[in-house]
Amino acid sequence: MKVRPLLRFWPDLRSRIGVYIAVLALTLLANAIQLVIPLITGHIIDGPIADRELSGLWLPVLGVLAIGIAEAVALWGRRILVAPVVAQWEITWRSRLFERLQYTSVAVHDSWESGQLLSRAINDLSQLRRFFAFGIPFLVATPLVIIIGTIVLTVLQPVFGLIILIMAVPTVATVTVFEKRYRTVSRRSQDTVGEITTEVEESIQGIRILKSFGRSPWAAQRFSRLSRRFQGLEVRKAKLDSWFWSVLILLPTLAQAAIVAVGTWGVVQGWTTIGTVVAAVTISMVLRMPIEMLGFLLADALMALTAAARYWEVIDIRHDITDADGRIEDTPDVGRYTGELDFADVDFHFADTDRDTLRSLDLHIDPGQTVAIVGPTGSGKTTLASLIPRLQDVTGGSVRIDGTDIRDLPVNEVRNLVSVAFEDPILFSTSVAENVSMGAPGVDEDAIWQALEITAARDFVERLPEGLDTQVGEQGLSLSGGQRQRLALARAVIGQPRILVLDDPLSAVDVDTEDRVQRALREILPDSTTLIIAHRPSTSALADAVAVLDGGRIVALGTHEELLESSPLYRELMGASAVTQGRTAAVPAGRSSAGPAATGQATKGGAQ
């Protein structure tokens, strides 16, 4: 059995190894001390009973009582000591896994089913906790008890020890065959649990779609197929278990029968005593439990080994987005930045393909300037937005803030400098206030209300049953799509970020509300550099400049009005009413229609 995945936990175990050794010792004591009782029984038969001296019973009886008390104390001490230790280890392992997932790129998350990650974080770590609390102590103690019992039998009568040794040969062979087969089935079973978890999670999150399209039977069939596969694997595990347990129960029984037969013959022949035979038979009965437990312990060990391997698969995911020195900085300092943003000859492709999503892209945005990005579906708009907070990293060129490559800046500093609002708003199962203040931890209630005012969310929040303290439910599904989007946008603007990235964050609200929010952003956050993924002419019209993205390159750059005149692709993207809407949209005072830095930076990306 390859135990390296379990051995990798040694650094965590080492800090409490003294306590854990005490647990192992108490486990061994509680199990091995039972072997003394058969010896006392044999002594009673060959001594006080054979000699008919009742006075000689007191000391052996007190000895049996003392052994029972010692066994109970040892079991009590083992449980008291092991529970807090393994619980702390489980917390450590779970925290490590959670932290690993927090700093893993979005692309890696997208490559994993969420159910597989959940099953590793919950089921597998619970399996490991149980194994370290119960499995390992008994897995260490059980073979030692069997060895000690065999030695005692050999000392009592060598032929009895020989019988046990003969029984060990088929036992070892059975264990070898069982281990290979059970390990494979166990891995497939635990992976299937992850698939089932994913299926349940998706069906709950998509319950509105399933009901709307009448696809609940389809979802039930998918779940049923997975359940039947899991059932088949569990039945196969049970069959392997049953064969293994049958052999482990049969062999000790045969050994007992052999000891009784040989012992009886020995008593008749005079080379052993009745007390010795009774002691030997009783010891073989005591050994039956450890031998039979080997089946359970081995199965538990194999499941723990699989759980450990699955755990380390996640932990071993390389931190592909880290600080320049490989660490992750926890103390961001963002006050020194102006928010100048540059995309310099940027290339990007996803890990599973060589086709560039972005290629040779150049774009400069001055501090405080607002630039809208428009383009057909699949042109790379969302990918471009994800590069700024380093949700993805460029595969060529660089993204720079104030002239510094963001890969040379602390990750958390970049992410405190940049705020993002996505088209698909993600809210957490907590209050409105906590969801909004997540964008700037520690802000007061006035700042929260101001952010809600900017995003036209104050009115509906005031009407909620408990106002800011209203719980929004899982993913905020108790709110409408537009309400969720406005809360997510409030979370993005509350910290008055230097750079604001808006990936069509108001697609679910009406044009008038969007216009009101956009104007409020321009007035309240005049110093924030803003990049907007836009789909509406009204949004583009409010930007200082518009960049048209097609095929991963900037193919046109200018104001909304200029592009309506010069770019057929832009006119097509904006629709038939774009000219009318664009020309009548008001441009707020204090903003240049297209700053020189914006209008002169499309040389590599394509023709204007």
UniProtKB/TrEMBL annotation:
It is found in: Cell inner membrane. Residues 584-608 are annotated as: Disordered. One of its GO terms (cellular component) is plasma membrane. Keywords: ATP-binding, Cell inner membrane, Cell membrane, Membrane, Nucleotide-binding, Transmembrane, Transmembrane helix, Transport. The chain crosses the membrane at residues 20-45, 57-76, 131-153, 159-178, 243-262, 268-287, 294-312. Residues 594-608 have a biased composition (Low complexity). Residues 21-303 form the ABC transmembrane type-1 domain. Residues 341-576 form the ABC transporter domain. It is a multi-pass membrane protein. It holds the Pfam family ABC_membrane. One of its GO terms (molecular function) is ABC-type oligopeptide transporter activity. Belongs to the ABC transporter superfamily. Siderophore-Fe(3+) uptake transporter (SIUT) (TC 3.A.1.21) family. This is ATP-binding cassette subfamily B protein. It comes from Brevibacterium marinum. The lineage of its organism: Bacteria, Bacillati, Actinomycetota, Actinomycetes, Micrococcales.
